[in-house]
């Protein structure tokens, strides 16, 4: 009987705690949303499964010596987010942005959500039970850039204990772009503005596309070195794509490398969704602030486009300003969809890709600024 009791003590049923059961439910919910609803499946599925694995009692999968513990070293060191940026750069076409450089302003404006949320997080300290340091607030604020790898990179540097909640919030709101952005876009624009047709973009030469990533990393190195790791890997991937001399490397970065790293990144983030780390009052605050950050970023991009129209002859459809958040390419597709609802012959996708790509650069720059501020 003693042996049977000892075996019973080693089972998961005996060691289950209410918090672990709740987090298993969270993990299964993420898996359901990824499979059934198609919400960012490439990351929500491994994150959800990582949450399930890390909350299995006794197994110690996410503890010292477990596989998820060792995988997390890739996030702690910053390697995984940087490799994701390498892959993203190799898949990115800067052509639409270079063809219409004004869209850089739209990508920059969308980053207001980040800095607005920074102060919002600090203001939440007035709420009993909530306490965010300046580092915590900076890590939470980056959710507004709608850039998952950047959010993970900054959180791993500034607030590793909040990494799970920040990552889940960032990718959840990215997945909800088609639900969150359209009401804001419609509320801030008139029908006449949504009907604006933009002229066809000029053809960008191969030389321009090759020179741009080199110029970008040089400027970053001189002006904001703290953003150099993210922007540097992004530029390297893009240069491999545009140079045409390392197709094997470019295709590897676009496919095998980014796929493998995405699996490891998702599982590592899931390892931080333990009951003790996630089931806290601060988590609710992070989820709320993430929604506010994303909404502010969307609104700022639209309003910047409206402002630009007051000073330029070539009118910009304000809908493409919402693509300034760096949820590539989903927010650009949403802008195109809303535009075509008003005019089926109005094609905004390529125009929206300009601020969309600019938003990726903008969120990396904003991350560099935040990292520099808290040193």
- Report how far the terminal alpha carbons are from each other: 59 Å
Percent range of helical residues: over 70%
The computed structural class is: mainly alpha
Overall mean pLDDT stands at 90
The total count of helices amounts to 22
- The succession of helices and strands, N to C, reads HHHHHHHHHHHHHHHHHHHHHH
- Strand portion: under 5%
Runs in which pLDDT lies below 50 for 5 or more consecutive residues are none
Radius of gyration equals 22 Å
Shape: globular
Pfam families: OAD_beta
Enzyme class: translocase
Cofactor: Na(+)
Function: Catalyzes the decarboxylation of oxaloacetate coupled to Na(+) translocation.
Description of the structure:
There is one protein chain. It is built from 22 helices and no strands. It is globular. By secondary structure, it is mostly helical. The protein has helices spanning about 1-10, 10-15, 20-35, 40-55, 65-70, 75, 80-90, 95-100, 105-110, 110-125, 135-140, 150-160, 165-175, 175-190, 190-195, 205-225, 230-245, 245-270, 275-280, 280-310, 330-340, 350-375. The protein has one domain (about 80-375). Helices cover about 70% and strands about 0% of the residues.
């Amino acid at each position: 009987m003693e042996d049977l009791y000892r075996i019973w003590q080693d089972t998961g049923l005996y060691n289950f705690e209410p918090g672990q059961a709740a987090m298993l439910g969270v993990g299964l919910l993420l898996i359901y949303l990824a499979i059934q609803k198609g919400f960012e499946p490439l990351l929500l599925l491994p994150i959800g499964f990582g949450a399930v694995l890390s909350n299995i009692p006794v197994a110690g999968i996410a503890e010292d010596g477990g596989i998820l513990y060792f995988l997390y070293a890739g996030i702690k060191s910053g390697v995984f987010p940087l490799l994701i940026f390498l892959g993203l750069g190799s898949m990115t076409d800067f052509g639409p942005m270079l063809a219409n450089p004004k869209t850089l302003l739209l990508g920059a404006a969308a980053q207001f959500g980040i800095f607005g949320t920074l102060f919002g997080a600090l203001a939440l300290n007035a709420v009993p039970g909530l306490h965010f340091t300046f580092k915590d607030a900076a890590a939470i604020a980056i959710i507004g850039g709608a850039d998952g790898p950047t959010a993970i990179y900054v959180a791993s540097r500034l607030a590793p204990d909040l990494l799970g909640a920040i990552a889940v919030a960032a990718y959840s709101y990215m997945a909800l772009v088609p639900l969150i952005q359209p009401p804001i876009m419609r509320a801030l624009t008139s029908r006449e503005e949504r009907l604006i047709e933009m002229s066809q973009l000029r053809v960008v030469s191969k030389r321009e596309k090759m020179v741009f990533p080199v110029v970008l990393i040089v400027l970053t190195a001189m002006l904001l070195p703290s953003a150099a790791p993210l922007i540097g890997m992004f530029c390297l991937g893009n240069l491999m794509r545009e140079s045409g001399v390392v197709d094997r490397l470019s295709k590897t970065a676009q496919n095998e490398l980014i796929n493998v790293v995405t699996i490891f990144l998702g599982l590592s983030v899931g390892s931080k969704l333990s009951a003790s780390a996630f089931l806290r009052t601060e988590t609710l605050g992070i989820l709320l602030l993430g929604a506010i950050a994303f909404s502010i970023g969307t609104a700022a991009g639209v309003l910047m486009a409206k402002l630009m129209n007051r000073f330029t002859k070539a009118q910009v459809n304000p809908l493409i300003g919402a693509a300034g958040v760096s949820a590539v390419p989903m927010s650009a597709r949403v802008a195109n969809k809303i535009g075509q609802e008003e005019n089926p012959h109005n094609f905004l996708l390529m125009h929206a890709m300009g601020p969309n790509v600019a938003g990726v650069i903008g969120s990396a720059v904003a991350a560099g600024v935040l990292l520099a501020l808290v040193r």
